[in-house]
């Protein structure tokens, strides 16, 4: 006589497409007379139907993804902050080259170091000019550079180490920070969907 444990194992095996170990006709005969095993088979078949149900139709997200990718890649129209940043980058680059060539008022070795760091900052600004969506990445760099210049300028002017007019040469760095911040805000607004159609530059 076939017991319920064997039949229930066979039911599970049949549901998984495996060898039940019993003749399927014996399983069917037992299930027809056993409410417990019949309930077990209905439960297993119900689980399989719920797992194998047809996939739900999803919206096509490709256009939105392409739009976001283009926007994040900085395909914007030229704006005032972007133009100002380009001018600042050129001015700082000229000063950097002057320091690198030893044309600065400070010691030649220190001037070349300052020129190298300034040139690196110019490259970061250039990246934002070409790809404004990178403004959010460059913003922390701009904050650190500008804060360091302003703090040291205040200290040096107060100590009489340098003249105020000399420290005013760092004005482009301050303006560049404002421009990078403005481009960061613009990028966040566009990412939220407030902007109009994307236009190539």
Describe the structure.
The protein is an all-alpha fold and 201 residues long. It folds into 2 domains: 4-51, no CATH class; 62-191, no CATH class. It is built from 9 helices and no strands. Helix 5 (80-100) runs antiparallel to helix 6 (108-130). The longest helix has 25 residues, at 135-159. It starts with a helix and ends in a 10-residue tail after the last helix.
Overall tally of structural domains: 2
Classify the helix fraction into a percent range: over 70%
Number of helices: 9
Largest sheet: none
Q: What order do the helices and strands follow?
A: HHHHHHHHH
| N→C terminal distance | 83 Å
Overall shape:
rod-shaped
**What would the average pLDDT be, to the nearest integer?**
78
Strand residue percentage: under 5%
**Residue ranges: pLDDT <50 for 5 or more in a row?**
194-201
Structural class: mainly alpha
Number of strands: 0
Question: What is the topological layout?
Answer:
Blueprint: H1 4-15, H2 24-33, H3 35-51, H4 62-72, H5 80-100, H6 108-130, H7 135-159, H8 164-167, H9 171-191
Helix pairs in contact: 1-2, 1-3, 2-3, 5-6, 5-9, 6-7, 7-9
Question: Could you name the key traits of this structure?
Answer:
9 helices, 72% helix, mainly alpha, disordered C terminus, single chain, 201 residues, 2 domains
In brief:
The chain has 201 residues and is mainly alpha-helical. It has helices at 4-15, 24-33, 35-51, 62-72, 80-100, 108-130, 135-159, 164-167, 171-191. The termini are far apart.
């Amino acid at each position: 006589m076939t017991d319920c444990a064997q039949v229930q194992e066979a039911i599970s095996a049949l549901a998984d497409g495996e060898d039940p170990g019993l003749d399927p006709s014996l399983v069917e005969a037992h299930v027809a007379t056993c409410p417990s095993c019949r309930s077990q088979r209905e439960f297993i078949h119900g689980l399989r139907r719920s797992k194998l149900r047809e996939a739900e139709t999803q919206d096509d997200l490709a256009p939105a993804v392409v739009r976001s990718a283009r926007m994040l890649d900085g395909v914007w129209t030229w704006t005032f902050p972007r133009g100002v940043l380009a001018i600042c980058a050129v001015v700082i680059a000229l000063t950097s080259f002057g320091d690198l060539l030893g044309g600065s008022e400070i010691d030649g070795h220190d001037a070349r170091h300052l020129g190298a760091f300034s040139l690196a900052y110019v490259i970061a600004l250039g990246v934002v000019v070409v790809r404004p969506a990178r403004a959010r990445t460059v913003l922390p760099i701009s904050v650190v550079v500008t804060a360091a210049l302003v703090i040291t300028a205040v200290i040096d002017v107060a100590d009489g180490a340098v003249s105020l007019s000399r420290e005013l040469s760092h004005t482009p760095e301050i303006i560049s920070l404002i421009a990078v911040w403005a481009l960061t805000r613009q990028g966040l607004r566009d990412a939220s969907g407030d902007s109009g159609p994307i236009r190539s530059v």
